[in-house]
# Entry
Amino acid sequence: MHSLCGVGNGGGLYEELHEEPPRQSRQWDAVQDLDRFLSTFYKYYEEKGFASIVASHVTHLVALLFTIVFSFFLLVYVNWGAVLKCDSEETCREVSIFIQQPFATMTVLKVLSLCCFGLFMLFWCLNCYWSYHNLKEAHDISIYYRDRLKIPSDEALNALDWPEVLSLLIRQQDISPFCIVKEHLSALEITNIILREDNFLVALTNYHLLTAHLPPFIPARLMYTKSLLWNVRFCLFQWIFDSRSRIRPECINFPDRLSYRFRWMALWNLILLFPVLLFVTIYFFLRHAEDFRSNKSMPFKREFNSYAEWTFRELNELPHQFQRRLQKARKAAEEYVNSGWQSPAQDSVKRCVKYIAGSFLAVLVAIALWDETPLLFVKVFEKNLLWYLAVFGFLVALSHTHQDDSSADSSLLSTYLATMRVVQHTHYLPPSWRPTTDGVGRGGGFNLGLAKLHRSVRDSFCADFYNYRLAYLLEEIMGVILAPVILMIWLPASAPEITNFIKACKYETQALGDWCAFGHFDLRRHGNELYNAPPPYLQPLHASMNRAVGMAVEMEMSQSIGLQAGRERERERGRLSLSRAHERAVASELMSPLRPTEGYHLTSQLGKLEKSLLSFVLYYRLPPPHRTCTSLFPAAAAARHDDDDLMVQSMVASAAAASDTLYSDENEPTLAP
# Structure
C-alpha cells in the first residue's frame, strides 16, 4: 500500500513506503489527542522551528501588552482638551499635556476605560496561558522532530518541503506508532485530520451557505471579516465535534440549537461591542498609521480579502500551500486590474492633479528642509503649512496612476490573457466569467460588447475579492459593529441549511473521527459530471442542483452582452454584482431547504473537488496511475489508497515501471490550474 511519495528506485524520501518494518523493532509512542498532535506538528513546520515559534509568541505578547497599556494611557492620562486647543507657540507652551490626577473626578469615559483596561488585561493573561501551553507543546514536538524524525535543527527543517516531512512522519508511524487506533496513516488522512474544520468551511463557502440569507445591502465579504468568522467557527466547530472528533448527532439533527448558539453569541457581541470596537480601532490605527504616512499610496493598494481567500482555497490545501499560490495570484490580479482599455482623459486629469499637488508639496518640503518652524506657525486660511503638507501628499498619492505607459497593450487578447493568469493561480472561474473567453479576436461591434463585459467582470472581481487596503480595514471595523445583528437575525436563518449540509457532507471513519466528505476525494459520491466525474446513473445527484446551476449559467450568458447603459441602471438600483447574482440563484434553488436523502450525494460547485484532487496528487507526488489515462478516478483512488479498486490495481504495475521516467528532474510535476 502506497502512502505518500512518488515511486522510485533511488531510495531516499521518495521511495516506496509500503514495506512494513519488522514486528520486533516496533515501539509504541502513542499520543492521547491525535488532532492536537498533528496540528501542532504541522504548526511547527509552518513556523519553521522552535526559535521562530518562541519569537512569534513573545513578540505577540509584548505588542498586545503595549497596545493595551498605551491605549489606556492615551485615553486617561493625556489632556486632549488642552492639546487640541493649542493654536500658537505661546498657548502651546502653557499647555499641560498630562493629567496629574486622572481619577480625581470620574467621568463616563474614564469608567469605560477602566472596565476595558481590566477586560484587556484579562485577555492578555489568557494569551499568556495559551502561549505557555503552545510553547510547551512546541518544545515536545521539537524533540520529536529531532529524535524521531532525525531532523537535527531548524535550518535542516527549512530545507525540507512538507511532503518530505510528512513522508518521514508516515514512516515513523510504521516504526514507532504515535496513532494506536489505526496501524497505517496516509497523507490524505493526516491532511483531513489537520484541516478537519477548514475543509468544512471551504465547503460551506463553496455552497454560499453562510451568506445565503444576507440582505442585498450587506456584501458577502462582510461575513468573512475576522470578527464574524471567529464567531461562526466558535459556534459551529467548537460544538459539533465531541472529544473523539466525531460529529454529535444531536447537533445536526436539531438546527434550532445552532440558531440558539448564534443568538447567544450575538448577545455577547453586543455586550462587548464597545471594548472590542475600541481595541480593533486603536490597533488598526497604531498598526497602519505609519505605513500610510510613509507610503501615501498604501491605503489604495489592493489586496485579497478574507472572502476571496476562503473562496479560492481548495480542499486539503494547507495554509502554507495556499499562501504560496495566493502570492502568485496577487501579481496576476494586479496585472488584471490594470489591463484593458483605460480612459486617456482620466489619465490626463490624474497627471495634471499630480503635477499641481506635487509642485505645492515640493515648495513645502523645501521650506521644511530650511527651517521647520514656518510649517507650524505660518497659517493660510486658518490652517498651518504642516496641514497642507499632509493634504498635498494625500492628493499626490490619490492621483498616482499605474497607466503612465501610453503604449501599454489594451487589446482584448491581452485582457483575456490577464484573466486567464488570474484563473490559473486562483483556480476560480465562475459562470459569470466564462462569456469573456468567447469571441476573442472577432471584429465588428461584438468586440465593443466583449470589452464592456471584460470591464464589468473586472469591476465585479475588484468589488468582491480584491479591495483597497483602506476599504478592507474599514470593513473589518464594520464587521465588529454588525456582528450582533448578523448573528441575531440572518445566521440563525441559515442554521437548517448548515446542519443539513454537514449531515449530507459528513464522512465517518472507524478510528479517526469524522471529516468533510469532499476532502475524501470520492468522485463517485461527490464528483461533478462536468469535471470528468461519474455519469448520473452511477451518482444520483440532486436534480434541482443541476437545474439551478444551468439556469444561473443561462441567465448570466444572456445578460452578459447587454448594453453598458443597462448595467449603469442596475448599479443605480443597487442590484447585486454578477458573482453575487450567481450566488443567490444557486443558493435559492439548492439550499431552501437542503434535505439529504439516502442514496443522494452532494457535488462540489465549480469543480472544487476535482481541482483540489489534482492539486493534492501533484503536490504530494503520489504514485502516478493518474498519469496513464485521462480519467480522474485513478487519481482519487491513489489519494485514498483504495486497494480494493480494480481500476487502480490494474495500473499499479505499469505505474511503478514508468515512475522513473515520470518523476525525473526534467519532468517535475507542476500544479495545474
The CA atoms of residues 299 and 490 lie 31 Å apart. The radius of gyration is 29 Å. The beta strands are 302-304, 379-380, 383-384, 466-468, 506-508, 514-516. The mean pLDDT is 75.
